Amino acid sequence: MVIRLPRSPSGWTMAVFGVLAAALGVLGLVSPDALLKAMSLSAPASGRPASDYTRTFITASSMAALNMGAYYVLAAAADWRAFFRWTVPFRLLTFAVFTAAVVAGRAPSGFLGVGIWEGAGAVVTGVALRYETVAARRSSPAPAA
Asked: What gap in Å lies between CA 32 and CA 58, rounded to an integer?
């Protein structure tokens, strides 16, 4: 088995994000309470009532994070820059929605870290893609006159 490392700065941003997303997904599947604690979201002192589906939601979102992490790592290995570009606006949208949820009181302040992680990752990937585009234009030979 050959492990393909990313071949571009934008690929590295995707690979790092993907590995982190997959790792957090695994953490949430193995230990939902540990993931909640890592996000500064605590369990009620008296435990959770039977009607509390927090762990169900953590299981679903953790599985999604694991899958998303795998997609990002595979896209990075293939240097699939179109995919990298597609993620930037949607990760910025995720940042906006998660931040708005905290500001509106629909989510606790610990959830803001998830939004910031998405937004910062989108910006870093976007900057890397822009850098690569500018560098490619500079290195292209001038058209013949």
From this structure: 6
